[in-house]
Amino acid sequence: MKWLSILTFLLCFLGKISLKAQAPEQMNYQAVARNAAGIALSNQNITLRLSVRHDSPSGNAEYSETRSVTTNNLGLFTVAIGSNGATDVSGSMNAANWENGPKFLKVEIDPSGGNAFTDMGSSQLLSVPYSLSSADNQWKTNGNSIINKNSGNVGIGTNAPDASALLDLSSESKGLLVPRMNAQQRTTLSQPATGLLVYQTEAPEGFYYNKGSAGSPNWILLGGTGPQGPQGSPGVIQSAYEAGSAPYPSSIMAFITKPVRLTIQEGQSVFVIASRALGGYFVANELGIKPIAQSTIPGSPIIELGLGMFGLQVPANTRIIHSVNGVFKNLPAGTYDFGMGGVTSSANWINCEWGYTSVLVY
C-alpha cells in the first residue's frame, strides 16, 4: 500500500465581511501528494475527506465533505472546501460556530480514489480563516441582507457607546448621511416602516419620516409648517385699575367711580367692570347706573352701554355695593376715560364710599 505525505498546504478564506457578495463561503486548500518514498503522485485521481473539527483534532465535526481530485504532473492539487462538487457533505461552512473555540482541519486521503481513507493529520486554523466571521462572527447573512446578532451596543468612532443607544456614532469631522431621494421616489417606497427617515432632495426639501403605517404611510416634513388654523383671540393687550373718590350721582349722566384713562387702537375692545357702595342718610331712590366711556377730546359726548340697572333705591342710613360691567367695541382709536356712570332725580345719594374701576383691553 502506498503512503502519502502532504508537504505543503495553503488556507485562504473568502470572508463574510469584506467579500460577502462571493457566496458560498469557501476555504482554499492546496497540497502535494507524495508516496512514502517522497515521489509525487503525478496525474493521479485521489479522494479526500476534509473536516472542520471543534476544539481539537478529534473534536466534533462541524463541517465535513468528500471530494475527488486529480493531481497535476507535480502531484499538486487544489480544492475549494465548501464549493460545489463535494459528496457526503455534513453541516455547512456558513453554519460553523467560528467564534467559539479553536478549529482544526482534518485531512484524510485515499490515493486510489476510493473510500479507504488514511488520516494525514490535522492543522489548527488560525486568524486568516476566521475572517469568515470577522473575528467575532457577529455578522450573518439572511438572503440578500447582512444582519448583526450583537445584543449590546454598537459604537463607531467611540470605544464606549452610550448604553441607551443601539448605535452610537462619534465624530468631530463627519456626519450621518441618510438615503436621499426625490418626492416621487419617497412616495412610492414599498411598505415603508413607521418611523422610516429619508431626505427629500427637491422642494419642499428636508427630512421626512413616516408617521403612518407601512400600509398607509403619512409622510411628515420635520420642522415643516402645517396648514394655517383659525385665527384665535389676540388675548389681553393691556389692563388698568383705579380706585378713589368720585362725584355723587346727580341729574346728569356722569362718572360716579374714578375712571381709568387709556389709549386704544382701532379694532380693540375694552372690558369695563366698576363698583361702588352707594347710599344716603335719608331714603335714596331713582338711581340708574351703567358702564360709560368718554373721549378726552374736549366736548366729546359720553358713550353709554345699554347695560345697567335702573330705579335703584336704599333705605335711610344705608350703603349698598352696586356693580356694572360691559364691553365697548368698535371705538375709534384714541384716548378714553372708562368707568361707572350714574344719573338720578334724587338728591339723597350722598352717603357713598370710594369707587373702583378695572379695564382690560383686547
Brief descriptors of the model:
362 residues, mainly beta, Immunoglobulin-like, Jelly Rolls, 3 domains, 6-stranded antiparallel beta sheet, 5-stranded antiparallel beta sheet, 1 helix, 1% helix, signal
Q: Give the second-level CATH assignment, the architecture of the largest domain.
A: Sandwich
Average pLDDT figure:
87
Question: Tell me, what's the shape?
Answer: rod-shaped
Structural class: mainly beta
Secondary-structure element sequence? EEEEEEEEEEEEEEHEEEEEEEEEEEEE
The helix content, as a percent range, equals under 10%
Rg, Cα atoms, Å: 49 Å
Count the strands? Answer: 27
User: What's the domain count?
Assistant: 3
Keywords: Signal
Signal peptide: 1-23
Question: What's a quick, concise take on this entry?
Answer:
With 362 residues, the protein is mainly beta.
